[in-house]
Amino acid sequence: MMKTGTHTRRLRRHALGAASLMVLAGGMMAAPAWAQVPPNQAAQDTSADPATVQTPAPPPEQVDEGATRDIIVTGSRITTGGFTAPTPTTVIGEEQIAANAQPNVFTTVAQLPSLQGSTGTATNTFSTSSGQQGLSSFSLRGVGAIRTLTLLDGQRVVGANVTGVPDISLFPQLLIKRVDVVNGGASASYGSDAVGGVVNFITDTRFKGIKGNIQGGVTTYGDDQQVLIQLAGGTSLLNDTVHVIASTEYAHEDGVGGGDFGINLANGRDWFRQSTLINRNVLNDGSPQYLFRDYAQSYNYTKYGLITAGPLQGIAFDQSGNPFQFQYGSNGVPARDAAGNVRGCLPGFCQGGDLSGNVDAGRSLQSKIQRVNSYGRIGYDFAPNGEIYGTINIGQVKTNNQPVGGQNRPNLTIQCANPYVPALVKAQCATAGITNFQYGTSNAALGNTQVYTDRRQFRFVAGAKGRESVAGSDWSYDMYFEHGTNYTDVDVSNIMLSRRFNQAINATTLNGAIVCADATARANGCQPLNIFGGNPSAAAISYIMPQYGPYQRTRQTQDVISLNFSGSPFSSWAGPVSIAFGGEFRHEFYRVRADPYGAGFANTPANANYPADPALLADGNNWYAGNYKNGSGAYSVKEAFVEADLPIINSDAGGRANINGAVRVTDYSTSGTVWAWKIGGTWDLPVDGLRIRGVTSRDVRAPNLSELFAAPVTTTLPGFFDPFRNVNVLALQNTIGNVNLTPEIARNTTLGIAFSNSQAIPGLSLSVDYYKIKITDVISSLGAQDIVNLCYLNIAPETCGVFNLNNPNGPNFINVQSFNLASILTDGFDIEASYRWRNPLGLPGSLTLRALATNIRRFITDTGLPNTIPNDTAGVNIGNTPKWKWLAVQTYATDDWSLLLQERWFSDGKLGNQYIECTTGCPASTANRPTIDNNFIPGAFYFDVGGTYNVTKAVTAYFKVDNVFNRDPARSPYFVNPALYDVLGRVYRAGVRFNF
């Protein structure tokens, strides 16, 4: 059961309070006309917000009756009229969000081809300890969510994880007017993390009326049942000077849990084949080193137990504990040697045979998720062009996943005298002259581990924005203070304490009763466990898997003060010169607490739920998985920026051109001062509608709280090699943060051309952009041996101060931490096109076509480690970066109904670009260029269809079917890749929207 406490009760009270702010206004609000924003152009905001500067009127087909068109340019701080940012920007409008009919707006945005490696409810489901289950966060260009800045109305949002990334599930989704995706670095404008780009959610701050949405959904397999209920209201008071809006929403998805052991996925999905990459460990015999095989069977364990080595190898046990001869795949025959080899099989695996013990099918395909969100905003126009406002956003997201089936233990030693050993097996022990045997089990009898995550966010913003005339020119100002707190609770249930398990399976007979063999363990409650078959006693289960499992309690806070000013104080020969400047202060803090069995008794004292036990390690790490640790840390950021836009050409013969530049200086309390800058421009050629643009920038990402102040973990390395003395030593590995980390530095370059001519070809917009990102000083983790070797070889002297392998004053140790050693290089193309045809072929309504594509030419990662070569993962389909990825949407809409067709596709790829594919006559396999028999991973094509019908002017019914052809994911040696492939199958959704 998920635990709830004081914070949850407080959240519910605040959520109800925020919902009570909703003021329901009478009168009909007309739905805004669909307006196609030209791709990668400055986004147009249709709200009548006095804080932004009006721009010249758009083409007639883009005007909303009664609305004033203002401009907000994501990726730039300049808000003056007529300004066009040189950074490519893709816009998703509220109509497109609604048409996609997803239970979370995150899913709609994440479909964009430039977003690669974003996380959601279908990712991180195989994890126990990451704390990222169900976390919805964006990754642009495949460089990771930590290098993509996500904003809400241009403002920072407190992180929902110690990596600093927010959870989109906590945003007020019904009030989102549009989403701007800036495909390029924006650190000079917005600060740290905007290396891959920016995703900015713009809300409707002037909404009037009542609107809502009720939606349900289910997969073709009858699971992941979904419900979404959203309601928003807004009004104005006191002669339209006070504006109040509020929204609340509830969403629930059942998720898709794990299937049975073997290859049986949940609810009849039949695409899983237990594909495995098998290492032959033979490098130069003319055959490939690695073999890609389906239906792989590990011969080191079975569902209810298997003797894995020695004279009795091959004896398995059924659920009742009865022995039988195990069926090896590949016609394998146990060698019955001490190494546990199986003749006729590959190292570690056979193919086919009895697959019932395999655990991978037990993994959740999608986390169960429930989210509750309430949002309120009140603004007061204290002047015709000035507003003060306050917002409150309170949300909660609960998720649940099953990481894997059972709790696999493949390398156990069982005594033949154990009273639970069947008599037949005891007799065979005696005949063979052995006293123990090697044993492996999936531990299916123990059930499956469950991970519950509860995130609660409280975010408050107070600000002022508007325009004032200074020295004869208009200046915009935007200032705000934000305080956010995020609580994350992780609870794990049905998981073993490994040392108690080891004590419980070591049973003996005492005074006619079966007991634990260790007297100290008996004195502390040990109950013997029958590990043969599937019928352990309730007392044994309670002992090895107590009621209270691992937990982690994290509190994060973020405080931001931001001031920004923008205006056009003078003009050049080509037009007004625009300037923006400002500053920001930010403070980030986190603290995490864990249970004493995981973190250690010295860090978290024993209590009634976690009593002291001499059988457990005092330093923690006692759980099978989920050994969370304690930690804390904080840092502060002070920064200032200036940005300018200089028109340089403005004539009929030369067209219109501008140069845009910015510089930002940032001081981090942990790493000192760093500079970011950008320089670029646009040129509207004399050919009507043709624009050339380009920008290059220096962007930064500061180390996050986790990298700086990671909760420490200590493990023992009994035979660690000391290259300085050429001996093996006993050492302690301390996994910690590194407060000496410095910011990553990126160089971002984008060059492109765009076409949009409303006169020559009305409704057509095209753009092509080339991008290149080079990130140096990338923060990356190193292993203990790598750290010592880098110092020994004098390759990275900074590692020399973090270990001591000849310590006369205490134990030898290596502090395993991250360093600024690696680099990333990626480049490619973005292509975007849209066309809107009014009254096609004389028919009523309009046809809209839109397509977006991203090509990744290279994605090269260099670890910085000796004896390694850079690895290019472009086109590697077990990752996030296929060579090509595109999204196409066709919509036909009339006044009464609409039909949407959508295609999602990515190209065929490889398992890894480092492999040499061959079947015979293979060259020698090396660590950098290994050989493999099959290096192909197919791409995928998904087709979606949806539609709407206007029941009345205010009520619309709709439907959506995703993955119409029920396309299965490709086989993978790593179970499945949910970052690229659809793992759920066909999904049906339907609902009703209303807007009064």
UniProtKB/TrEMBL annotation:
Give positions of region: Disordered.
Answer: 37-68
Which compartments does it reside in?
A: Cell outer membrane
Q: Name one Pfam family in it.
A: Plug
Q: Where is the TonB-dependent receptor-like beta-barrel domain?
A: 438-964
Point out the signal peptide segment.
1-35
Q: Which residues form the TonB-dependent receptor plug domain?
A: 85-198
Q: What is this protein called?
A: Outer membrane receptor protein involved in Fe transport
InterPro entries registered for this protein in UniProt: Beta-barrel_TonB, Beta-barrel_TonB_sf, Plug_dom, Plug_dom_sf, TAT_signal, TonB-dep_rcpt-like
Q: Which PANTHER family match?
A: PTHR47234, SECRETIN_TONB SHORT N-TERMINAL DOMAIN-CONTAINING PROTEIN (PTHR47234:SF3)
Query: Where does this protein have compositionally biased stretches of type Polar residues?
Result: 38-55
GO annotations of cellular component type: cell outer membrane
Q: Which family does it belong to?
A: Belongs to the TonB-dependent receptor family.
* Keywords, alphabetical: Cell outer membrane, Membrane, Receptor, Signal, TonB box, Transmembrane, Transmembrane beta strand, Transport
Membrane topology of this protein = Multi-pass membrane protein
- Gene3D superfamilies xrefs: TonB-dependent receptor, beta-barrel domain, TonB-dependent receptor, plug domain
Main subcellular localization, coarse class? membrane
